[in-house]
Amino acid sequence: MDARKTAEAHLEAWRAGDAEAVAATAGTYTDPDCPGPLSGEALAAHAAATLARFRNLSFQVDLVTGDGDAAAVSWRLVADHREAYLGMPATGGTVTVSGLDLVTADAGGTHVRRVFDRLAVAEALGYTARFVPASDETREFGVSARAAGGRTERPGALVLTWLEVRDDAESADVDLLSVEIVKSLRASRGFLGATTFDVGGRKFTLSAFDRPESLRAVHARPHQRAMRRFFKGGLCTRVHTSVWYPATVRDYARCPGCAQVVTAGTGAACECGWIPEDASTL
Asked: Residue 86's closest CA among 114, 59, 123?
């Protein structure tokens, strides 16, 4: 087997969007998204999934070096992001990333090792990486986001929901539904804000409303669509929803001048006369 010719044929299979040809031109294959070396049907399935996420692939070869035993192809990829990747919902945008294919040939066949920077892919899609441990002895870690409504009055009701997801693709699907729900809530009068946070396999949302009567806004069409996806569409494995009414609400602020702590929202002032402004609820 000629490693250099194999490298060119393998890259051409990706260009053509042919998952079967990708598998046929590599005895084994690895890349940063693989659990380990793949071959045959497993490689064809991996290639098909990649081609579904990133469509209209355009590989531009910068340099090809090597001989019959080993070859390296430096390339630049431009593709359309059409399905979830690493938990990132499909952006519909175009991603550009550089990488390298290392191809070797031996008695066992040809082996392709593709190298690229997944962080560069995420950044090209508009995401910023944050590194947190999965867990320690007492805690699980995750990520969070905030959607402020711009109002600062004290909440009269809180809605807590969480959903259990199976994988990154389902997580991205839930994120898209969550965005539409929050957009609809921001158009309602009683919505104060929402915070979302992902921990382990659960995705939480905590929403604040000015009074219990305003909770009717939750039942707008985006939320109804999400509920149908759960009950009839097979989305997620478990859902929790609950309503909470505050028994006690306290808000404290420290004066930037004298450092005295003042109870906010009451009109109270510190010794130097500073009165804290109300802060957004969530």
From this structure: 123
Q: Which CATH number fits domain 3-124: 3.10.450.50, 3.40.50.10490, 3.40.630.30, 3.30.499.10?
A: 3.10.450.50
Overall pTM > 0.70 = no
Strands (E), the chain: 28-30, 54-66, 70-81, 94-106, 109-116, 142-148, 157-164, 191-199, 202-209, 238-244, 252-254, 261-263
The string of pLDDT tens digits covering residues 59-110 is 999 998 988 889 999 999 999 999 888 878 888 889 999 999 999 988 888 9
Assign domain 142-244 one CATH number from 3.30.200.20, 3.30.70.100, 3.40.50.720, 3.30.70.1060.
Answer: 3.30.70.100
pLDDT in tens, 126-160: 888 777 788 888 888 888 889 887 788 889 999 99
DSSP state of 135: B
